[in-house]
Here is the input.
Amino acid sequence: MKWPVMQSPVLQWPGMKWLVAVVAAPVIFGAFVAARGVEPLSMYRDMLTSLVDPAQAETVLVRFAVLLLAGLAVAVPARAGLLNVGGEGQIVAGAVGAAGIGLLTDRHLPGGAVLALMVPAAMLAGAAWAGLAALLRIGVQVNEAISTLLLNFLAVDLMLGLIYAPWKDASGFGQPSSRPLPGTARLPLLANTTVNAGIVLALAALAAVWWALNRTAWGFRLRVVGGNPEAARRAGLRVGPLLLGAMLAGGALAGLAGLLHFAGTEFKLRPGMTTGFGYVGFLASWLALHRPLRVAAAALLLAAIAMAGDSLQIDAGLPAASVNVLMAVVLLVALGTRWKAKETAA
Amino acid sequence: MSLVIDVATGAVRGGTSILFVALGETIAERAGVVNLGAEGSMLTGALAAYAVTAETGDPLLGAAAGAAAGALLALVHAVLVLSRGANQLANGLVVLFLGLGLTSLFGAAYVGRSITTFEPYAVPLLSDIPVLGPVLFDHDPLTYASYLVAPAMWWLLYRSRWGLALRAAGERPEVLRTYGRSPLLVRYLAVVAGGLLAGIGGAQLSTAYANAWFENMTAGRGFIAVSLVIFAAWHPLRAVAGAYLFGAALALSPALQARGIGLNQFVLDALPYLVTLIALVVLGRRRGNTAPESLAKVFDMTGRST
Here is the structure.
């Protein structure tokens, strides 16, 4: 189905979709909110003022760091043509890996050493979880979009299984959880703020990913494989190891996101601790067409929207999850106004 | 023996909502469209059914509203994916978040409100059959409806002209076009029908199974249904077996607990996913070949050297 209007040169302008998203999304969300009897304009005013508030802005940055890594975890494999829908599971795996090392060593080693051990542990755990999907793809041709999706649920069940029995905090009450991480092993806070050092790790990862994808032979080879694996094979590239490497890198990034969330915000494993970071990261990467720097911009936008949801709850008395509508409309516009659909459909 | 009956009954009770969603997703995927937003359709269906039942006192009207809500959300997916060329997997997730947000916004008023929902109805005579009677014939009306929908879907897919057109849209749309039919129209109908069934699944969950509404109550059941479709190799009758397998895994641990046997629930919860994954590995290539042709393109970003 072609909409002739959509072909006009003005609407073909790449910035158009952002303009539409910026205008349409608040209008649509405002209409829904008005239907619930809340005045949209004052709601938006509350949302914006809450974002300017330094304390809130700091929370946005904390969330941004996690989402950035979750988005990069999708962007790197996407460069090689792999769909990593498993960020959620890899984040959980990373948190479990970090918690495992933490529980094992925190009574014997100083906090700094524990933290130093947790970082590689989380990245390895995330990489291993993603690596499973990569091996299934390369070895027996199980599609990675499906296997990573399934592995998400397995990771969550694995974590729940651990905290309901072997890792359960005996002195905890209420909801089962693992023993909290001692204060010294947590990610330190940046001077006089509530922002933890995770953002430094995330930005370093962003720089590394940008450099690896755009300035190294490896990044170039990934792009060739992503463009046409058959041609890559004939040109003598070892496609299997490249695919595996891309997926492992993605998993490691997601694992690092798991560490940030665990050692920066949660400090213990508990049910529902990651609530959708992996999926939002997936969308951030799609919004950014898998370009690292744009992933950062998309992650910041989505983090700010999520934060606005909390102000929605406090100021307007609406459930925080309502803000998902706003996020979804922004994304629908962005996904749907890709000027030239390269879809093979029909 | 009573354990077997308990688990089997629980499998049907807990599996039915998933079954509806899986059947809907089967239609959509057979036509070549993956809808990860099935979870969202299920959620909006659950809320619409609960809200309408609360306001009118008629759960049947509620189920109809649930079906409509699920279909409407799926229509959003259809428009974006089919007419605007959005990526199917990414857009499905967005639709899910849309459903999450909408139900959170409009559902708050119904949290903790108790209403008259579907009553289980023991079918006379049939429910007296030993073992099978209590397992199959002492349920809510929507469960009985699911007994009819699954075979009807099999007939529709494999024995009707409609089914042929649907499968052609997923396998070889150009052939369909040669015969003067529009693959686009078929796909639209398939995606919307899929959302409709997912909405009924949600209605079963909120007004027959849980008898409650709370935020994000589907808790991944829609995703389970999507993976189930692959496990069932896009076949409606195998989807029945798969849905009850998931239902049984959910029912086993409480049934054992009631008999004093403790078990880590999460090992059981993980089982269905593990089984699906192993099935994919074992059946690997063969299952890959049964996948509708257009779907392979969705899942394979790199294309198959075409």
